[in-house]
Amino acid sequence: MSTTKTSSTFKIGGEIEISRLGYGGMQLTGHGVWGEVSNRENAKNVLRAAVEAGVNFIDTADSYGPHTNEILIADALQPYPESLLIATKGGFDRTGPNQWTINGNPKHIKEAIEGSLKRLKLDVIGLWQLHRFDPKFPIEETLGPVADAVNAGKIRHVGLSEVNVEQIERAEKVLPIVSVQNLYNLGNRQWEDVLNYTGQRGMAFIPWYPLALGPDRMKSKIADIAAKHDATTAQIALAWLLKRASNILLIPGTSSLPHLQENMAAAYAELSDEDFAALSV
């Protein structure tokens, strides 16, 4: 496993420079990512604090709520700072708390894009991502409305989520892919080949569930390294990801201002090569 010198920024699509430590909006919803967040004013304050702290990359989806998260982001941050990139996703139906149904129907995808534009109050979505490949529809059909939106100037860049290398290559025959959002963290590295592929191709790799620490045997080792850096275990988990590859972008989410500050401080926990190797076994 390779390591890299930690850089603070990355260029999405080779042109949109953003901080590698962003913010994920999923937690600013109701229980089970369903319905409105319980304290909306607090949620708006968290979003504003994130931007004030230097976050210029926010990840959301039309399925968070559904719809409530995108509306919240617009209410909190409009007018948007010029440097802010809001990434959203489409391709799920929601029928209740913790219920997610893949929907790659081109009609649904077109409606998802148009809905996100309206709810986020954007003329152009900087990064639109497909939640999942739907086995009921060829990916060429699913991505048809996405390509149309790119050509119409409604989407600037396109990404994928939970995909393997073969699926990325198939999607790239339809339109350029600039990012991949897969499950990846210190305790779960099943997508190493995808991470390496995206790095070689200059694509962003956006781990979801980035704070998982892995098996119990790792926790004492993480705690020792955290103590050495006067950091929390969560900060070390994020610092490890930042050091793992220069194309990794982090989107830890929280509804707590203190936790937001803790996550932002992870950028300053510079792991040594020895620390990184100890955590990478």
TrEMBL record:
- Name of this chain's protein: Aryl-alcohol dehydrogenase-like predicted oxidoreductase
In which organism is this protein found? Dyadobacter arcticus
Kindly state which keywords UniProt assigns to this record, in alphabetical order. Answer: Oxidoreductase
Query: Residues in domain NADP-dependent oxidoreductase?
Result: 20-279
Q: What is the lineage of its organism?
A: Bacteria, Pseudomonadati, Bacteroidota, Cytophagia, Cytophagales
Q: Which InterPro entries did the record assign?
A: AKR, Aldo-Keto_reductase, NAD(P)_OxRdtase_dom_sf, NADP_OxRdtase_dom
Domain of life where this protein originates: Bacteria
For this protein, the record's CDD domains field holds: AKR_AKR13B1
